[in-house]
């Protein structure tokens, strides 16, 4: 199983990342490619840009840990996670998750699992620039509930309380 | 030990990191947070709602009742909003 995990300032090309993962392989029957994109408005307010802050070191470690955990749950042929940091403009990609497996079920599930964990456990913080103000993005309860689906009783859920 | 701050915790404290030497009676993350709160208005503002602030010891998520003994780096930050 191949795993690529990258943090970067510049935008990424999802098609190229997916091709790199599947190129020359005949064991892959399904690829799920998810791209999170910066929206142009939030609650009716126009967004000028979004800045992604991260905890260097811990961010990479957490991503690697979640990718490993996905590998243990599903039989994956490959995973690519790219997360951007720094300033991102509306319409630009923020995060990429590519999961490859022999069959679609594992690829779909692993992509959702990785995104749910990225949203709630990986040390990244979004700050939105509006025309005349800025605001840190508040966590969404629905994201926490999505991540909870994957948790066992001994998970870090308690740590968040 | 080194303290690191991220996102609005960093903005409120007014620094990204600092070296501190807490007194012996401070043994847990929660106690460290209340000790910091007493250090000044900027800390009081950052930790005014301690239930919201998350912590990591040596780059691992921890609960606030975690022991700080032996920690090299403790980070405080808001709930994460990546992805």
Strand and helix map with partners:
The complex is a heterodimer of chains A (161) and B (83).
Chain A: E1 2-8, H1 14-22, E2 30-37, E3 41-42, E4 45-54, H2 58-73, E5 76-84, E6 86-88, E7 93-101, H3 104-121, E8 124-130, E9 134-136, H4 141-148
Parallel strand pairs in A: 1-5
Antiparallel strand pairs in A: 2-7, 3-4, 4-6, 4-8, 5-7, 8-9
Chain B: E1 2-5, H1 7-13, E2 17-19, H2 29-37, H3 41-46, E3 54-57, E4 60-62, E5 73-77
Parallel strand pairs in B: 1-5
Antiparallel strand pairs in B: 1-2, 3-4, 3-5
Cα end-to-end separation of chain A: 35 Å
List SSEs of chain B in N-to-C order. Answer: EHEHHEEE
User: Given the helix and strand composition of chain B, which structural class is it?
Assistant: alpha+beta
What is the mean predicted local confidence, pLDDT of chain A? 92
Number of strands of chain B: 5
N-to-C span of chain B: 30 Å
Question: What is the compact description of this entry?
Answer:
The complex is a heterodimer of chains A (161) and B (83). With 161 residues, chain A is of the alpha+beta class. Chain A contains four helices and nine strands.
Describe the structure.
The complex is a heterodimer of chains A (161) and B (83). Chain A has 161 residues and is of the alpha+beta class. Chain A contains four helices and nine strands; from the N terminus they run βαβββαβββαββα. Chain A has helices spanning 14-22, 58-73, 104-121, 141-148; strands spanning 2-8, 30-37, 41-42, 45-54, 76-84, 86-88, 93-101, 124-130, 134-136. In chain A, the strands form two sheets. In chain A, strands 3, 4, 6, 8 and 9 form a five-stranded antiparallel β-sheet that branches. In chain A, a hairpin with a 2-residue loop joins strand 3 and strand 4 (45-54). Chain A is globular and about 50 Å long. The N and C termini of chain A lie far apart (35 Å). In chain A, 32% of the residues are buried. Chain B is an alpha+beta fold. Chain B has helices spanning 7-13, 29-37, 41-46; strands at 2-5, 17-19, 54-57, 60-62, 73-77. The longest helix of chain B has 9 residues, at 29-37. Chain B is globular. The N and C termini of chain B lie far apart (30 Å). The mean pLDDT of chain B is 97. The chains are: A alpha+beta (161), B alpha+beta (83). Chain A binds chain B through residues 36, 52-55, 57-59, 61, 83, 94-95, 115, 118-127, 136-139, 143, 156, 158-161, and chain B through 4, 6-8, 51, 54, 56, 59-63, 75, 77-83.
